[in-house]
Amino acid sequence: MCGIVAIHAPDGGLAEADALPGMAALRARGPDGSGVWCSPTGRAVLGHTRLAVIDPDGGRQPIADEEGHRHLVANGEFYDYRRIRRELADAGHVFRTRGDSEIALHLHAREGHHALDRLRGEFAFVIWDERTGELFAARDRFGVKPLYYARHQGRLLIASEIKALLACGVPARWDTAAFAAHLQVAPPPDRTLFAGISQLPPGCYLVAGSQGVAVRRYWDLDYPLAADLEQGDEHWESHVEEVRAAIEEAVRVRMIADVPVAYHLSGGLDSTSVVATAARHDTVTAFTVRFDDPAYDESEVAERTARRLGVRHHQIDSHRADFAHHLRETVWAGESVQENAHGIARYLHSRAIRGHGFKVVLGGEGGDEIFAGYPQFQKDLALGLSPDLFAETRRGYRKLVAAGAPQHLRTLLDELGFVPSWVLDRYLSVTSPVMPLLRPEFAAEVSVTDACAPLLAATGDQLAGRATLHQSTYLFAKSWLPHYILASERLDAAQAVEARLPFFDHHLFAVARRTPLHWYTRAGATKYPLRAAMADRLPAEVSAGRKRGFFAPPVVGDDGMVAAVRDLARGSALRDNPFFRPEAVVRLVDRLADRPPAQRATAERLVQLVGSVGALAEEFGLTGGGTP
User: Is 498 helix (H, G, I), strand (E, B) or coil?
Assistant: First the structure.
């Protein structure tokens, strides 16, 4: 994991100094060194801050090709790079480093954007070609690694984090339309909460040159048609073996590093599967968050699992009363709103992992997305398995429409015939409850916003003829996953920790996407292909355990957090914001303060939203409202 900055000016005039402010903003991502290069014509400048994980002594960037025409800066990891290095060396390419990043440079020289088909991993990179005057940037398939860009004063600026673009002069303004979409589903695939700052969508590449800027897709989830999914059980055993082999390989290639590697371990199926697989190949050190609320704490299960698997184990205490002190720095690191205290817990967990001397950690994120583990996905799966249930649900939708359902839900009904459960849950838990807190003009904007229309428009033909589960998971992967869940990458990066996620591996997905729908709940258990594949490696209490997401205890139970949000509401952060009515927020927190802590949980997401908006405004100096 590193930080990258790239600036393109078609008419020239750039110097190395133009990248330095952005690089300084990314120092936490790359504390082990930095480098900058400017093209002789002044049309491009590339900057890099380095976390030394592969080839610590010789992997400095930017990297030039043999002739000095192409230069690269990269963030993340390319797996199975040694095999590709040998292939390229045999073809005559000369390498300047012993690392993984350089393969992207040489593959692109040989194959252009088709090089992306060969690259496996979590990555974002930029290549400048001095001969053609073309800048090329790309992001990994699932969006694990971030890449943002903006046009400012005739220049195109690209960076790993938004704060680097702001440091280079891009103004910090709210994108009110994007936040309205966030309250419904998520911002459009290429937008952020910052006006004029875009993100390169997952699985896409960007080309900038004399013809302007173009963004194109190189990979998609591409679920099979529902009619093509297998209906019987004759290939069950071979499918389980394919899943096991794919997980084994996804974990194994992510264990390769020239520094020690750590592992996340909860009491759940996903992280335990990763740890159990890794423990078959090497000595493992695992870290577990220990919460002070038994309802959310899985540390005892994790401790028993660690003993069973024979891994070193550290438990990191996380106290709800401390969360109020870390809200601002977590929001600064994540560059977005938080809606659950797990963001603060993750931020502090990564700090502890780094404190133990680790730069790399493998985690279990992605298991629920790949194997339909979320309860909402289970509901959508059930709709596809039962025509009677689907018909009954549609009758309920008609009642919802008759009662005045918002446009974004009606759009989904018109297009898909159902509303994905995770979208409906968001409407019930966020969109509807937040309305009384909003300023009248912004409430009106939310009321007429249809966040699902641009999301559906970007899907092409990827939803037609697909199962309800796959339609739901596809939309989730294009919205909430990169915009919110994978924003945890920035929380790790703030501590100079690189998270590697084996379940977000496109080779593993290629196997999982073919799973017949009824196999997901075979024997009455969720994520059954994963459970079956890992059955001989997991403790029985994990293998048979129920789904528990990584949720921290609600912060509204802490008087300190309630007081912190009240202070934000009474200060300039909310007084000058375009979204919330400060007096409505103060009334909300005052009502919460009068309740016992155990009775405040229903307001958790509202308090998190308000607190995050206030912290974002103060930390980034966000002003007014705007559109790209």
Answer: strand
Q: How far is CA 455 from the centre of its chain?
A: 17
The two tokens of residue 180 are: 């309205």
Round to whole Å and give the CA distance between 133 and 9. 10
Write down the pLDDT at residue 397. 84
The confidence score (pLDDT) of residue 550 equals 57
Vertex 533: Cα angle to 531 and 535 (nearest 5):
60
Catalytic, 204? Answer no
* pLDDT less than 70: residues of the chain: 547-551, 625-628
Alpha carbons 416 and 375: distance in angstroms, whole number: 20
Structural contact between residues 498 and 492, judged by C-beta atoms closer than 8 angstroms:
yes
Tell me whether residue 414 is annotated as binding.
Answer: no
Report the run of H or E that residue 575 belongs to, with start and end.
helix 572-575
Q: What's the confidence (pLDDT) of residue 573?
A: 83
Q: Which residues contact 136 (CB under 8 A, 6 or more apart)?
A: 108, 113, 126, 127, 128, 129, 205, 206, 207
DSSP assigned state of 394: H
Q: How much is the pLDDT for 293?
A: 83
* Contact criterion met (CB below 8 Å) for 320 and 284: no
pLDDT at 406: 93
- Which of 274, 235, 240 lies closest to 531, judged by CA? 240
Tokens of 63: 């990297």
Tokens for 10? 């078609």
CA distance 274 to 271: 5
Q: What's the residue count for the chain?
A: 628
Model pLDDT, residue 401: 79
From 2, 168, 204, 452, the catalytic residue = 2
| DSSP run (H or E) holding 380 | helix 375-385
289 is in an annotated binding site: yes
Q: How confident is the model at residue 245, as a pLDDT?
A: 98
- The pTM of the full predicted model, rounded to 2 decimals, is 0.96
The three-state secondary structure class of 76 is strand
Structural domains of the chain in order of their starting residue, each with its CATH number:
2-217 (3.60.20.10), 232-365+487-544 (3.40.50.620), 375-481 (no CATH), 559-620 (no CATH)
